[in-house]
Amino acid sequence: MIKEYLVDYSSNSNLHGLKYIGEKERTFVEKIFWLIMFTCCVVLCSILIWKVWIKWNISPVIVSFAETSTPVWQIPYPAVTVCFETKAMQTVFNFTEYYHQYNNESTYQNLTEEERFLFEDVSLVCDDHLAPKTGRKFSLGNVTVDNLKELSPNITEIFLGCKWKDIPKDSCTDLFSPILTEEGQCYTFNTLNADQLFRVENLHKAYNYLEFTNTSQSWTLEEGYPPDTPLETYPHRGSGYGAKSGLTFLLKARQIDLDYLCKGPVQGFKILLHNPAELPRLSQQYFRSPLSQEVVVAVKPKMMTTSEGLKPYDATRRQCYFPSERYLQYFKVYTQANCEMECLTNFTDARCGCVHFGMPHGPNMTVCNAGSVPCMKNAQTELVTAEIQSGLENDIHSNDTLGDARKVAAQCKCLPACTSIEYEAETSQADFDWKALFRAYKLPTDEEDLLMARVMIFFKEAQFITSRRSELYGPTDFLANCGGLLGLFMGFSILSVVEILYFLTLRVWCLLARKRRPQTNILYASPELNGANKKLKTLNVD
Ligand SMILES: *[C@@H]1O[C@H](CO)[C@@H](O)[C@H](O)[C@H]1NC(C)=O
Ligand SMILES: *[C@@H]1O[C@H](CO)[C@@H](O)[C@H](O)[C@H]1NC(C)=O
Ligand SMILES: *[C@@H]1O[C@H](CO)[C@@H](O)[C@H](O)[C@H]1NC(C)=O
Ligand SMILES: *[C@@H]1O[C@H](CO)[C@@H](O)[C@H](O)[C@H]1NC(C)=O
Ligand SMILES: *[C@@H]1O[C@H](CO)[C@@H](O)[C@H](O)[C@H]1NC(C)=O
Ligand SMILES: *[C@@H]1O[C@H](CO)[C@@H](O)[C@H](O)[C@H]1NC(C)=O
Ligand SMILES: *[C@@H]1O[C@H](CO)[C@@H](O)[C@H](O)[C@H]1NC(C)=O
Ligand SMILES: *[C@@H]1O[C@H](CO)[C@@H](O)[C@H](O)[C@H]1NC(C)=O
């Protein structure tokens, strides 16, 4: 019965070769030949389809350049964050002096508790090896932050003058505002305010990271500026290019305030250009603006967008997150840097039981102090290796906190955001001799120990080319590829599938239904008799 059925299928199928296998007139050798041929084609075809499938599955994304260039006024001017390397002015708090007193047993006794705590707080933002291992492990974040703010130079003591688009500002407070980072108190320009950058409801309330109220009117990382946005808005748009349409600022420092112990022999300022929706991490990336030098920074934006066609794909396959796909506990906007910051916070908390005051954290986390600095430093290096190892088998020798921390690290998976903006800086510098200029003008130079630095930041070109992630293979392309191979090897088409389905379902059902009917219909029921009928007919015609 089944054999008859298969013969029926093979004689009617539109797949090449199958016909000859089923036909009665063919000799055994012919049948074997066609069977082998058919099997070879099926195997070869399957191998090729498997290859196409792997290509589709493993690399569905292609990154190419957008067809048109983007003018710089469509993106925000980079956010600029400036940190001074002198964390405590020597005239206010002599860190070098306290370091020697703290580390000498006989003088340690003579320090008051307040002085010790102050020293430990400052050592948090200095080089890692200076932090006393015997110091407090935890402290109240609000007290530490207040102490550091008091000792570090304030905005009028660092900035001498600012110009935005070639218009001098009365006071730099119009442009720059304080921001708390891992490097202590820094100053930032064009960053979103705390309400728009953080999920304030999840953060602790002990102290603020950002203290200003400039609200972004309409810009979002994903959508950019709406078409009706005026030219003057916040975050500032990049309008124009060249030195005249950028940000220029003068920085100052007094020789007597510099501390060479805290941050080592390189004094001056650290500067980072970043996306306005991102918390800067100056301990990792920065360029320098040395004292008595002018730095000219030409900025080239690097933007990456993603086509809508990639939305249905899994995030790990397309290697980026759309904003709705990833929730960050402490940040409103998903960017890779924000995610990494949060991941480090979670990991440090799991490993050390506390976090650095510069990391945004929840109300249940305590703030680390000098005694935990070695642990925080370890956590940073461990996180890198934990992320690499999370794909490998679990380390059997790891003890409890490390095991827990690995679990935290495995959760992170900080892929890039599908729309991202970065700013590449091209710097050049030259001596900035303000005293020679004053002498030339015959002005008095009374403040002999004043050091200055000038920074100019502007877009290099009026437009740039955006990169774009899009589908290498859509589902249609995949289907077309498979169809081509199947057609080439077997003469396969969608109708062949329909035919197979028909033989498996409808025809079986029809045959069974007919069998139950009266005998008169039997002539047409059996395929064999049908064949006989046909033969009779052909004989008659002959
Ligand atoms: C700070 O202390 C060091 C070492 O004791 C000393 O050389 C330096 O002059 C002090 N600085 C100030 C501003 O008092
Ligand atoms: C510690 O301080 C005392 C008094 O200032 C000094 O005599 C001694 O040499 C110091 N010890 C060290 C190891 O620096
Ligand atoms: C510490 O203080 C005591 C008394 O207050 C004083 O006698 C001693 O000389 C001080 N030691 C140092 C090293 O300053
Ligand atoms: C810091 O916060 C604690 C409670 O969290 C509070 O008791 C203390 O007064 C605060 N200190 C300052 C200087 O604000
Ligand atoms: C900065 O500190 C100086 C004194 O050190 C003070 O006169 C000035 O008002 C402060 N500026 C701000 C903005 O707090
Ligand atoms: C913080 O701790 C309190 C009590 O210890 C708990 O009720 C609360 O759920 C915790 N919050 C978070 C975000 O873990
Ligand atoms: C876990 O390992 C760390 C060092 O890797 C060690 O200092 C700590 O004592 C260990 N804890 C336990 C419970 O074994
Ligand atoms: C950090 O921990 C919080 C709370 O456990 C969690 O909601 C969040 O997703 C974690 N962040 C990352 C980047 O894994």
List the helices and strands and how they pair.
Elements: H1 2-12, H2 18-22, H3 28-58, E1 61-65, E2 70-71, E3 79-84, H4 95-102, H5 105-108, H6 113-123, E4 138-139, H7 141-151, H8 155-158, E5 159-164, E6 167-169, E7 176-181, E8 184-189, H9 194-197, E9 247-254, E10 269-274, E11 287-289, E12 293-306, H10 315-318, H11 336-352, E13 367-368, H12 373-389, H13 400-412, E14 420-431, H14 434-440, E15 450-459, E16 463-464, E17 467-471, H15 475-490, H16 494-504, H17 506-515, H18 522-525, H19 527-541
Parallel strand pairs: 12-15, 12-17
Antiparallel strand pairs: 1-17, 2-16, 3-8, 3-10, 4-13, 5-6, 5-9, 7-8, 9-15, 10-11, 12-14
Helix pairs in contact: 3-15, 4-6, 11-12, 11-13
Bound molecules: 2-acetamido-2-deoxy-beta-D-glucopyranose (NAG) (8 copies).
